[in-house]
């Protein structure tokens, strides 16, 4: 047996220690992204989430007009925080449709009255079925859909002021 | 919409936010429920990532349980339901990693360690005898 072999377990231990210490300084990104980005929007048909506003059908995304699909809920605080950004996008002429997750019509109506309503249509997804079909893992999320109904991008979390110009350009360029 | 469906639609509107069917209710068929249960303990809850959807109280986990039970009840195989979720969320959603180039060390490490152990044992026994 070679003499230096006795150091092997210590070297292995030091390597594990170094690995653990290095990983501690940069926490892993646990965001679960949709694998459907770059693919066609799955088919769905959702009833209206509030009276007086249409529900949402996936076919509406295949008429040659790129747009945003916002996944939100009235019970979600970051969704209220991103309302000014959605309003700015709507003012810039970006069409926005939405899906309300596990929500009640009266709560959605109250949310829209309080934080503004930039949406053309809002579908009600009571059982997260469409959310799961989209590969969305929470609220709020914003999908960019091109004119052919293909998912161009998924933004996870609330929209910040710096996202508005980028998403506007992305939607305008997604024809 | 047909006229007789209207009261039904009103009923679903009233029953908003109540959890999805089969989220917290077992399937009537014990064999199918067992199959669904076996699948649910190996699927990751997406909003509480340390837990399986069978263990989690999160609303989204409830909706995922409903999805699993409804699809199993419809006669889909557990593997297909898992593949459907992996196609949307990636392999991270499954607690049962398949054997790929990336996960090969995970599967092969126990065998490699066993082999190393056998070699070490054989070497030390041989030394003792001589």
Automatic annotation (TrEMBL), chain A:
GO biological process, one term: cytochrome complex assembly
Coiled-coil parts of chain: none
Organism: Sphingomonas guangdongensis
Compartments, as annotated in UniProt: Cell envelope
PANTHER family named in the record: THIOL:DISULFIDE INTERCHANGE PROTEIN DSBE (PTHR42852:SF6)
Keywords: Cytochrome c-type biogenesis, Disulfide bond, Redox-active center
Pfam families found in the cross-reference section: Redoxin (PF08534)
Cross-referenced Gene3D superfamilies: Glutaredoxin
GO CC annotation terms, alphabetical: cell envelope
Protein name (Swiss-Prot/TrEMBL): Cytochrome c biogenesis protein CcmG, thiol:disulfide interchange protein DsbE
Main location: other
Domain Thioredoxin stretches: 35-175
PROSITE patterns: THIOREDOXIN_1, THIOREDOXIN_2
Transmembrane segments: none
InterPro entries: Redoxin (IPR013740), Thioredoxin-like_sf (IPR036249), Thioredoxin_CS (IPR017937), Thioredoxin_domain (IPR013766), Thioredoxin_ResA/DsbE_sf (IPR050553)
Signal peptide: none
A molecular-function term among this protein's GO annotations: disulfide oxidoreductase activity
TrEMBL record, chain B:
Residues spanning the membrane: 104-125
Gene Ontology molecular function: metal ion binding
One matching Pfam family: CcmH
Gene3D superfamilies (alphabetical): Cytochrome C biogenesis protein
Key words, A-Z: Cytochrome c-type biogenesis, Heme, Iron, Membrane, Metal-binding, Signal, Transmembrane, Transmembrane helix
Swiss-Prot/TrEMBL GO biological process terms: cytochrome complex assembly
Protein's UniProt keywords contain Nucleotide-binding: no
Superkingdom: Bacteria
InterPro entries: C-type_cytochrome_biogenesis, CcmH/CycL/Ccl2/NrfF_N, CcmH/CycL/NrfF/Ccl2_sf
Occurrences of domain CcmH/CycL/Ccl2/NrfF N-terminal (ranges): 9-129
Gene Ontology annotations for the cellular component aspect, listed alphabetically: plasma membrane
Signal peptide: 1-23
Coiled-coil positions: none
Family in the record: Belongs to the CcmH/CycL/Ccl2/NrfF family.
PANTHER family the record matches: CYTOCHROME C-TYPE BIOGENESIS PROTEIN CCMH
General function of this protein: Possible subunit of a heme lyase.
Protein name per UniProt: Cytochrome c-type biogenesis protein
Organism annotation: Sphingomonas guangdongensis
């Amino acid at each position: 047996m070679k003499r230096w072999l006795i150091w092997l377990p210590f070297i292995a231990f030091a390597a594990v220690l170094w690995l653990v210490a290095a990983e501690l300084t940069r926490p892993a990104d646990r965001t679960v992204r949709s694998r459907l980005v770059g693919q066609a929007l799955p088919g769905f048909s959702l009833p209206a989430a509030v009276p007086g506003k249409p529900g949402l059908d996936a076919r509406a995304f295949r008429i040659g007009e790129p747009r945003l699909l916002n996944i939100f809920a009235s019970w979600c605080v970051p969704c209220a925080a991103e309302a000014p950004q959605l309003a700015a996008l709507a003012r810039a002429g970006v069409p926005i449709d939405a899906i309300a997750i596990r929500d009640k019509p009266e709560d959605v109506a109250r949310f829209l009255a309080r934080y503004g309503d930039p949406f053309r249509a809002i579908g009600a997804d009571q059982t997260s079925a469409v959310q799961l079909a989209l590969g969305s893992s929470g609220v709020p999320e914003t999908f960019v859909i091109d004119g052919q109904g293909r998912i161009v991008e998924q933004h996870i979390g609330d929209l910040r002021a710096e996202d508005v110009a980028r998403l506007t350009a992305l939607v305008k360029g997604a024809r | 919409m047909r006229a007789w469906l209207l009261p039904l639609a009103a009923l679903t509107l009233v029953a908003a936010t109540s959890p999805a069917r089969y989220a917290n209710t077992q399937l009537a068929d014990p064999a199918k429920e067992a199959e669904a249960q076996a699948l649910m303990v190996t699927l990751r809850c997406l909003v509480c990532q340390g837990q399986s959807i069978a263990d989690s109280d999160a609303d989204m986990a409830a909706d995922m349980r409903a999805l699993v039970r409804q699809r199993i009840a419809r006669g889909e195989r557990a593997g297909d339901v898992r593949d459907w979720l992996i196609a949307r969320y990636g392999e991270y959603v499954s607690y049962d990693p398949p054997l790929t180039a990336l996960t090969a060390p995970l599967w092969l490490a126990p065998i490699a360690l066993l082999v190393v152990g056998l070699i070490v044992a054989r070497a030390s026994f041989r030394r003792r005898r001589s």
